[in-house]
Structure formats: C-alpha cells, structure tokens
Write a structure and sequence with these properties.
The protein is mainly α. The protein has 70 helices and three strands. Helix 45 packs antiparallel against helix 46. It is extended and about 160 Å long.
C-alpha cells in the first residue's frame, strides 16, 4: 500500500497551513463535552449519504490524478545513482553484526573449571557440586562427571551447549598437567557425546590426542558413529576418510554404519566407492537379512546402469554365499544391463546360473531388443529358452513378436503368434491387431481387413483412432475408396470424429490421414485404351488419382509401416505438446510393458510437462530415478527447470543432486535456479549449506531479476541470514543503478516485515549520510516496522523527521501510528496526521477515521471519539460494527451506562448486530453497576438477534456475575440452562469452579470440579491449584489427596502451588513419610512442571531434619532450569552444619557464590562456628576473608569463635591480631578474652610472619591498613 502513495503526491498537497497544523492543531480547543444529539444524525436519509459518498469518490479521483503528476515531479529529485553501495552496506554490516553473530564462545583453554561446571550444573547438580572446591581433577573425577551427565541427560535439544562444557572440562583436566591420562571409558563417553551433537572434528582431535598419549580405545563404535555423523551432515569426503582410517586400523564398522554410508554414496552417485564399501561389508561376513536388501538393490542398480554388469553379478554371488537370495529387482537390473549391452547370451547364462526367469517386463524388453536388432527368429528361440527356465510370456510378449513379424513381412508367423495368445486364454492387445491389419494391407489382402476388425470387436477390444487410420491408409493404398468412405462412417459411429452432412466422407478420410483433400482428385479415365486407369470401380469404370502419386503412396505406406510397431515416443511427445501430461504418463507405463525406452526428446518433453503441471513431484523424481542415463543427456534448460521445481516443492536434496550434476557437466545455472535452491534451503535452516550455495552462486556471477530478488530477500530475512541479505542488496544496487530506489524500498520493506527494523533504520541512516534523498515510502516502512515491534518512541522519531522534510507517511503506516500517538498523549499530532492522510489518500478515509477512533477509545478520550463519530457521519461515512465496538468499549471504560444504552439502541435500529466483544463489555459494565434487569435483557437480545452459540452468551454472563460477587444470580442462570437442556462445556465448568471458590462456596466448587472430571473434561491448571490449596487451607487434606490421585491417574501436571499445599499440609500434620512418598510419585510419573518452585518445601524439610529430601528438591529445581533463592541454600547449609556435615555444607556455600547468590549472615556464622568447633581453623580463617571480600561484616560471634579457637591452639599472636580486626569492625570483645590475650602476649615472643600476613590480609579486605590501625591505637 505504501508504494501506491509517493513523495510526489505529498509535495503537491502539503501547503504551509497544513504543515503548521501538525504543531498547532487543537491546542486551544476547549474541553470536549458530551454531545446530547450525537445519535440524531444517524437518522439522515440514505440518499443523502450516497450522494455525499459519490461526490467524495469524484473528488478522490481528481486528487489522485494530480498526485501522479506531482509524483513524477518529486521523483526527479530522488537520485541514488552516485552513491557508494559497497561503503553503505559494509557500514551497516559493521553497525548491526551483533544481531546475527552469536556471542563467541570463550576458548576452552581460557575458561576456568568453575565456568565449565556451572555450564552443566543444571543437568547433574549433585555430581558437579562436589568438584567446585577442587583445584585439580583426577581421571576418576572426570569419569564420574561424564557418567553423571550421561545418566541425567533428558532433553537432547539443549544438549549441544552442555556437551561443549563437558568438552571444556575434559580439555581442562587434560591440560592441567602433562602426566594426566584420561581413562578409556571417559574418552569413549566423551566421543559419543560429541558425535551426538555434531562436534565431529573435536572427536577426531580427541582420538588423535588419545592415540598419541597411548590411550587405547574400543574405537569400533566411535569410528562407526563418526562416519554416520559425517554422512548426516553430507560431508562425504570426511566420512570416507574416517572409514579408510578405521579399516586401516583393522576396525570393522557396524552394520548400521555400512548401511548409512552405502545409502549416502548411492544418493551421491559414487559408483566406485559404493562398490568398494559394499564389497568390504560382504567380505566382513555380516549376517545380512531381507531388511538389508534395499541397499543391495540400490548398489546393483547403480553398477548396472553404469555398465558394470560383471561387478554387479559377482557381488550377487558373494551375497548369495551369505545366505541372502537376491530379489527380483536385482535380477531384473542385471538383465537390463545385459540387454542394453546386447549381450543376450550372458543374460541367458545369468538366468541359468540363478535358476530363475526374468520378470515379464524385463523379458519383454529382451524380446523387443532381440526383434529389433536380430530379428524375430532369434527372438523366438530365446523365448523358448526363457520358457524352459519358467518364464511366462504375456499377450505383450507375443504382441512384440506379432508387430515385428508384420514389419518383416512374415504375416503367417504373426497369425501363429495371435493363435498362441488365444490358446493361452490371453487377450490380444489392440496394438497387435493394428499390426496384423497393417500387415494384411501391406500384403495386398485388403479383403480380410474387415474380418480381423470384426474379430477384434468380438473379443471386446474397442478400435481406436489408430486402428481406423490403418484401415483408411490400407483402403486408400488399395484404391478402395468406397470402403474408405464406409470406414469414415464407422468412425463417426464410434464418436472418434464428426462429419457434417455437407462434408465428403472421402475428403474426411484424407484429412484423417493428414493428406490435403484439395490436392487429391479421383477421376474417370475416358480414354478408350484406359491409358491412365489405375483401378476400377464396381461398375468397371477406369479411375485414376490426379495427385502426386509418389508422395501419396509414401504417406499411406508410411502410416501402415508405422502402425506395425507402436511408436510410444511419438505418442508421448504429441501428448505433452497438447498439454495432456496425464495421458503421456499412461503411455509411459504402456511403453515399459512393450519393452521400449524413452527417447531423449520424449523424456525432455515429459519432464517439462510434468514440471509445468500440477502433477506430484514424486512422478518427476520416479522418472529421473528410472532414467539416470537420460538425465545426464538432458539440456541445461530442462535441468534448470528440474532444480527449480524440486526446490519449490520442498525436495531440496534432489534439487542439489541435479545441480551438482549440472556443475560437473559445466552447464550454465540460471539465477532463478539459485534463488529457488536458496529459498528452499532457508526454509530448512541449514546455515552451512546455505553459505556454500551462496558462495557458489556469487562465484557463478549470477544476475538476479527484481522479482527473484524479492523472493530471496524475504527468505533470507525470515531465516535471519541478514549478512547475506545485505550482500545481496549491494549486488542489486550495483546491477540496477536506475532502479536503486525501488531496490532500497523493497529491502526496507522485507527487513521491517520480519522484525529487523533496526537494520532497516541503519540502512536509511547510511543513505542519508551520503546525501541521498529518500522518499516517504522508505520512512513509512520504518514507522510500520517500529510499530509492529512495539518500539513506538523510534516510530515517533521517524515521524518527526518526516515532518521536517514535508513528507507524509503512507496510509498503512499512518493507520498504525495514529493510535500510538494518542496513547503517547500526542493527540494533536494524531488528529493532524489524520487530516493530512485524508488529503493525501481520501479514497480510504474510513480506515484513517477508524484508526483515530481506536486511539481515542483506547485512551479514554470518549468525548473526542463521540465528536469524531459525529464528523464521520456528517461526512457520509456510515459507521460499521467495528466503529460501534470501539465506542462501546470507550463508554464502558468511562462507566457511562446511559451512553452505552443509547449506542446499543442505535445499533439495533441500524441492524448492525453485536459482536462478542461488545456483549462482553456491556455485561461487565452492567454487572459492575448492579443493573440486573438490563443485564438479563441484554442476554435475551444476544440469544435472539445473533447467531452465536448460546452457551458462549451464558458463559460470559456467568463469568462477570462471579467477578462482581453475584453468585445467587448465577444459580438462577444455571437453572435456566438446565431448563433449556444446554450442556456445560469446559469453559462453563471452569468458570463455575473458580467462581464458587472465590465466593467461599467450597463444596459447590468441588462438586462442579468432580462433575467436570467425571465427564472427562480437564479443569484449568488455575482451578486445580486453587481448589487443592483451598482444601488444604480448610483442613480437608483427605479431599485434596483424592483430587490429587485423580490427577495422577490422568497424568495431569501438579503445579508448584498444588504440590506445596499438599506437602505443606502433610508436614504440618507430622506425616513426613507420606509427604516424601507424594513427592517421589511426582518425580516417577513425570508430573512436575518446568517452572516448579520448591523453595518453601526446602526450608520446611530442613526444619524437619530431612536434609536429603531438601537437597533432592533443590536439585529438581536446578534440573528444571529454576534457580532456588538464597533462603533455600541457607536452610540447607545451616541444616548440614547442624548435623556436622561440613563438607557438604561448604559445597552448597561454594555453589551459592558461583551462582552469584549471597549467603545470609546466619549461614556464614554457622559455617565459621562449626569449623572452629571441629578444629578446622584454617578453613574458618579463609571463610572470614571470603566474607569480607564480598563486602559482608563478620559477626561478633564469628570473631569470638575463631579467637577462642586460636587461643586454644596457643596461636596468641594471630588471635591478638584478629581481636584488633574485630575491634575495627565495630565489635567489642568481652573483658576476659581481651585481658587473657594481653597477659598471654606479654609472655609470648611469637612473631610468625604468616600470622601477620593473615591480619594484614583481613584488615586490607576490611578497608584498614596496619599502619593506620597502629596509629589509631
């Protein structure tokens, strides 16, 4: 729509007064009052309204005409020809690269163990927790981490980043010291995980490094999986390289690996490689089954079609030695291969060796080839040999012999084969009869032609057009024109042709034979000696043809000869030329039965026809697979079409294979082909393949048309290949310098539509910085994009910049912007923009008015909305239901019952109907004001006047009655529903359950919830958690548990509130085992939501001394991706301290710090006290330093505990220094401690530098220096 409104029209309309209105409009307007006569204008005559609308349309037409002139005038000023395209694009890429470049992963060598452990801690928190405080890992530790990850891994979609963290741990531990040596099991697990997420080169690096360190792995599975991994990402060379390495080391790939690799090599047409790999698999002696037959069939097909028949035959022998009998498809492929090489004796020996006969299709192909190349006699002998092997010829087999016997002039043999068909209870094919009729005419036995035709009809075979052409050609050749005329009559009877009463049947016969009836005359020879007579009529008159007799004979003889052996290629070509692809495909099937092969011209015509038709792409694919040799001969035009068709239909892999074949043949690839392939790849999202194709297209110097560019840009932007899209922009700007404005606008539109307005904005900025003058369309795209992304401040900025340039946004941008200006309290600008938009594009003024009405109503400016409504009506814009909906919403927001009532009356009189949103707003308003009678009338009106389902009307009413606490009226409504026989749906039940619960009517709420479940309806999660929580709070634990069991039986998730309520209630009743059992069932049955929160239960279990269960709940939260709060960790830490499990407490403390959580003072105090109590003084000192580093102040009790511990260890100097630090922290020691230290220090001469170091460190962390403290002392 933006493109239709140009900067030229803006220049012609914007006068100084209109521009001034953008800033000053409505600034001095008094407060708008409610207009009492608002709706009186709605009663004006329809005729007047129509007259106004007609006048408005005429005015719009004139305005549009003038705008187009001004558009051309302004476009001359938009000159982008001199810009530096490359500089602009490079600058935008530099500015916006952060939008498509992922944050670079820190190299493993530069990441700490803590960071790596944190990366996998949500997978196996219990495993990683114990290694957070270690300085180095042992091989056994790495194995434990890997096993923990492997055991707990559940979501493969998030696995990639986690495996990278594991790989980081693996590398870090390997690099921590030169003597470190991973356990073989660790290497195997690590390799399997890397393969699973596609980090294949890392696996090769791992294998190489382990081998250099002398670590021997069971590489059978690893190498096999690695080969399969490379195959999955289509890296054939790497797959073969790894396979060769594997075989070079004497390792045997798995059967799965062999099958995957072989299938891939078949798909990529690697004939030599696939034969080598399959032969290797056979020689390994695998126990092959029928399930592995498909690969063997594919390999044999590939070899035979490449002429390697002997290799295929030897492969079949080896497979048979393993007990796997070849399928008929394999036998047919080898036979076909021999047939194409005309090596029929070897084909026969193969069947003898296999002790089997070919299929009918292959047998017929052999017979056709023998007849064509060596004659029917040899073909007959070969048929006898095949029959000895069990071959069962069909009517087509004998039909081939009949056709070629007629061609050879052996009519007697043809009749013998026909009798053979009949003796075997087979039904002759119509082509056989056509051939015999042709042979009869060719031998001059025209009198018997009708007998054969009658026999054919008696057999139930309806003659076709070709049959009658043969009859006409034969009679014309024999100069039996009377019989020819009779034949034309029969054709009319069969509905094959139409004959007018004025038409001469003989002329019609000549036309059917494609002869010119005007150039052929049958004349009587009046010469006494009959010197010109060629034939006689029934009366003995001598007749002759006045025409080019040689040409005539050549034509009719040619028809007879061509009809002996059917030319299916000609039929296919003609069908495709006529657009009848379906018929052509049916002819192909018949052609295969007759043992014939498609010619290149017919194949090309058929492919083009299939691509242009609505035929399934599978038909094209099947045809290509059957004719691989012809594919390699098709011209580049057809191949380009094939690639495009496959890609557009979603068969990207097939399209790539065809494209690769084109490149190998050095054929020209069209730009449209690259576009189709890239568009298809974008939908698949394979960035690596897209980049390869992109580079290939650019190297090929593709030249895109604008229509192709538009398609490709949309795909690239949609899949976030933004850098490629910008590179394409640079190419297009350079290729089409005279269309740069159109190219730029097209790119801006696509970027804004898919949510990358930031890039579009940067692009516009770069154009402007180079002095370019962009039209209003470019800016309008930015406004639309920012509005859709809800970045309204940026949209306003663009709008203001357009004002400064005397530009008006396009209609669609204005419609998006006007409501947002109202919401931003810029009403004057919204109104002015509306007025300007109406001047620019008055033909769609209704949309502009609707946008402003929407803005007024949504922002509570109902007075302005009412006046706008009046203005619309006075200008001939009749309101529709959407406008009325907006006004209803506005009046409801303003709580104006009277105005809503008036408006509803107008809507009824104008028969506008009511939407559900109008009804909902009105019901809410009436419920809030307690207006029961109007409420019931509104309900009746909706039931009577609208086609909405009645239950929806009642559901809305029930909901809002509950919202206003009117449960008594709800019960009345329910009685009405029962009387009408309306059954409750899921929504009704949910409203009733929650509504009665909010009304404190718990029994009724539970009653409806029970009824809902019994009807196999699922209550909402809100209702379930609300009812369970209410039951638990009310002391009805038994009912809550019953409801929970019903949920368990149905596999319904128990949310955090429900679980916390039930377990909390059980704990409050002292039922600890029941509480733990309930939580265990939640885990076993997978009923825990992803957003689970156990923080309250963790604290309660810690209080009850059930630390293991508390830790288990904390781990579940972490595995679900939810970080427990500090209070949860504090409870666990203090609990472990209470039971003297200090190492575990310290593990959780360290985890808190690693997760940027701040332990409470109580947690610090509990740890320090317990360390001192257990004599772990150094750890207590370290804890104090760590606490000070975090900006926390140790408590007096912490200082006292550590000082007392130091005193007991007779470390008086350090105790004294700690006492000084305690005083500097604002704590006063007790007199006894202070005096004891002083007296003991006088007797002590201990000046340990290490002790001074501790005090210095502690004081410096506290913000004090030793020098300062001494001065203060």
């Amino acid at each position: 729509m933006c493109a239709a409104i140009t900067a030229a029209s803006a220049a012609s309309v914007l006068d100084s007064r209109m521009l001034q209105s953008f800033f000053n409009a409505h600034l001095h307007k008094p407060h708008i009052k409610q207009v009492g006569s608002l709706f009186s204008h709605l009663i004006v005559s329809t005729t007047k309204s129509r007259f106004f609308i007609s006048s408005l349309a005429d005015h719009s037409s004139q305005s549009s005409s003038s705008s187009s002139v001004n558009e051309e005038a302004i476009k001359t000023h938009v000159d982008l020809s001199a810009i530096d395209c490359s500089r602009i694009v490079k600058s935008v890429i530099l500015r916006c690269s952060h939008l498509w470049e992922t944050n670079s992963v820190k190299p493993f060598g530069y990441s700490s163990l803590k960071e790596h452990l944190l990366g996998i801690s949500d997978i196996s928190p219990e495993t990683t927790r114990k290694f957070r405080r270690v300085s180095e890992l042992k091989p056994e530790d790495v194995l434990e981490i890997l096993l923990g990850f492997q055991f707990h891994r559940e979501n493969p979609q998030i696995e990639s980043g986690k495996v990278e963290s594991l790989w980081g741990i693996f590398k870090w531990s390997n690099d921590q010291n030169k003597g470190f040596k991973h356990l073989p099991q660790s290497c195997e697990i690590m390799a399997s995980m890397l393969i699973r997420v596609g980090l294949l080169r890392e696996v090769e690096s791992l294998l190489a490094e382990m081998e250099s360190r002398g670590v021997l792995l069971d590489g059978h599975e690893i190498f096999s999986n690695l080969v399969e991994g490379y195959v999955c990402v289509s890296e054939s060379e790497r797959a073969i390289s790894v396979y060769d390495q594997m075989r070079g080391r004497g390792l045997v790939p798995s059967l799965s690996c062999y099958n995957v690799l072989i299938d891939h090599l078949v798909q990529t047409n690697e004939k030599q490689l696939v034969f080598r790999v399959y032969l290797d698999m056979v020689e390994m002696g695998f126990d092959l089954s029928n399930a592995d037959m498909a690969n063997l069939e594919n390999v044999i097909r590939l070899l035979c079609r490449d002429g390697k028949i002997q290799e295929g035959r030897s492969l079949v022998k080896k497979v048979m030695g393993l007990g796997l009998n070849p399928s008929s498809l394999i036998l047919d492929e080898i036979a076909n291969g021999y047939c194409e090489k005309k090596d029929f004796e070897d084909a026969l020996s193969f069947f003898v060796e296999m002790n089997c006969a070919p299929s009918v299709v292959v047998g017929n192909k052999i017979m056709y080839s023998l007849c064509r190349d060596f004659g029917t006699e040899r073909a007959d002998l070969f048929l006898q040999e095949l029959e000895h092997l069990g071959f069962s010829p069909d009517e087509i087999t004998f039909g081939i012999l009949i056709s070629w016997c007629c061609r050879e002039g052996k009519l007697k043999n043809a009749f013998i084969y026909l009798s053979e068909i009949l003796s075997r209870d087979l039904k002759p094919d119509i082509c056989s009869y056509n051939a015999i009729i042709s042979g009869v005419f060719k031998e001059g036995l025209w009198k018997h032609a009708q007998d054969i035709l009658h026999e054919m009809v008696d057999m139930g075979i309806k003659p076709d057009l070709l049959t009658f052409r043969v009859l006409l050609a034969g009679y014309c050749k024999a100069r039996r024109f009377g019989e020819a005329k009779a034949t034309v009559g029969e054709m009319v009877n069969y509905g094959l042709i139409q004959l007018c009463s004025q038409e001469d049947p003989l002329s019609k016969a000549f036309m059917v034979l494609e002869l010119d009836p005007l150039a052929i005359r049958v004349k009587r020879d009046n010469d006494v000696g009959f010197s010109k007579t060629e034939f006689f009529d029934n009366l003995g008159n001598g007749l002759y043809l006045e025409t080019d007799v040689d040409e005539y004979e050549k034509k009719v003889t040619g028809i007879l000869e061509d009809s002996m052996v059917p030319d299916f290629n000609l039929l296919i070509t003609r069908a495709c030329a006529g657009g009848n692809v379906k018929t052509a495909m049916m002819v192909v099937d018949e052609m295969v039965r007759w043992g014939q092969e498609l010619s290149l011209s017919a194949f090309s015509a058929l492919l083009e026809g299939l691509c242009a038709s609505h035929f399934s792409i599978k038909a094209v694919t099947g045809l290509l697979e059957k004719m691989p040799k012809l594919v390699n001969q098709v011209d580049e035009e057809t191949l380009n079409l094939l690639v495009q068709t496959h890609c557009k239909k979603g068969f990207i892999g097939k399209g790539k294979i065809i494209l690769n074949g084109m490149l190998q043949r050095h054929l020209s690839v069209k730009s449209e082909t690259y576009v189709a392939l890239l568009a298809g790849l974008c939908k698949k999202g394979n960035s690596r393949t897209i980049r390869c194709c992109w580079d290939l297209a650019r190297r090929d110097k593709w030249l895109l048309e604008l229509k192709d560019c538009k398609v490709l840009v949309g795909c690239l932007c949609q899949q976030k290949f933004l850098k490629e899209a910008l590179e394409l922009l640079e190419s297009m700007l350079a290729t089409y310098p005279h269309l740069r404005l159109d190219v730029c606008n097209m790119f801006l539109e696509k970027l804004c539509v898919v949510g990358f307005t930031t890039i579009a904005h940067a692009l516009v900025d770069e154009f402007l910085q180079q002095g370019c003058i962009l039209d209003h369309t470019a800016h309008s795209h930015l406004i639309s994009g920012f509005c859709k992304e809800k970045r309204f401040s940026e949209a306003f900025t663009i709008f203001e910049s357009m004002q400064a340039k005397n530009l008006v946004p396009c209609l669609d941008a204005s419609i998006l912007l006007i409501p947002q200006l109202c919401r931003a309290n810029r009403v004057e600008k919204a109104i002015a923009l509306k007025d300007l938009s109406l001047r620019e594009q008055s033909i769609d003024s209704f949309s502009v008015h609707s946008a402003l009405m929407n803005g007024f109503c949504k922002t509570g400016r109902i007075g302005e909305a009412a006046i706008l409504f009046q203005d619309m009506f006075s200008n001939g814009l009749l309101p529709d239901i959407e406008i009325c909906n907006m006004l209803v919403f506005g009046y409801c927001q303003a709580n104006s019952v009277r105005k809503v009532t008036e408006l509803i009356g107008v809507m009824i009189r104008k028969d506008l109907g009511f939407s559900i949103s109008v009804y909902r707003n009105v019901v809410r308003l009436l419920c809030m004001n307690g207006m029961v009678l109007p409420l019931l009338r509104m309900k009746e009106l909706m039931l009577r006047e609208n086609n909405f389902p009645h239950l929806i009307v009642y559901n809305i009413l029930i909901y809002h009655l509950f919202q206003t606490g009117n449960s008594l009226l709800v019960k009345v409504i329910l009685g009405e529903l029962h009387k009408k026989g309306l059954l409750f749906d899921e929504v009704t039940y949910n409203f009733l359950v929650y509504g009665f619960l909010q009304s404190k009517d718990v029994p009724t709420s539970v009653q409806y919830l029970t009824a809902m479940i019994s009807k196999e309806l699922r209550p909402s999660s809100r209702n379930l958690r609300a009812v369970i929580s209410c039951l638990c709070d009310s002391g009805m634990l038994r009912k809550a548990l019953e409801l929970s069991r019903e949920m368990e039986l149905r596999g319904w998730i128990h949310g955090s509130i429900a679980q916390n309520a039930i377990v909390g209630c059980l704990l409050s009743h002292g039922k600890l085992k029941e509480a733990e059992s309930f939580l265990d069932r939640m885990v076993e049955k997978g009923l825990i939501p992803d957003n689970i929160n156990y923080e309250s239960l963790i604290r309660q279990f810690c209080w009850h001394g059930r630390l293991n269960k508390a830790v288990e709940l904390l781990n579940i939260m972490l595995k679900k991706g939810n970080l427990p709060n500090c209070s949860s960790y504090d409870s666990v830490i203090q609990g472990f301290c209470t039971v003297n499990r200090l190492d575990e407490a310290m593990d959780f403390h360290t985890e808190m710090l690693d997760r940027k959580l701040r332990p409470s003072i109580k947690a610090w105090d509990a740890l320090a006290h317990k360390f001192c109590q257990d004599g772990r003084t150094a750890e207590a000192e370290s804890l104090l330093v760590s606490m000070v580093q975090m900006g926390e102040t140790p408590t007096r009790e912490m200082y006292t505990s550590l000082i007392n511990r130091l005193r007991s260890e007779n470390n008086l100097s350090k105790a004294s220094e700690l006492l000084q630090a305690m005083q500097l922290s604002g704590h006063a020691p007790d007199f006894g401690t202070h005096w004891s230290l002083i007296s003991n220090l006088n007797r002590s001469k201990d000046k340990d530098s290490a002790n001074r170091g501790f005090l210095s460190r502690l004081l410096s962390e506290s913000g004090f220096s030793r020098g300062k403290s001494s001065k203060q002392g």
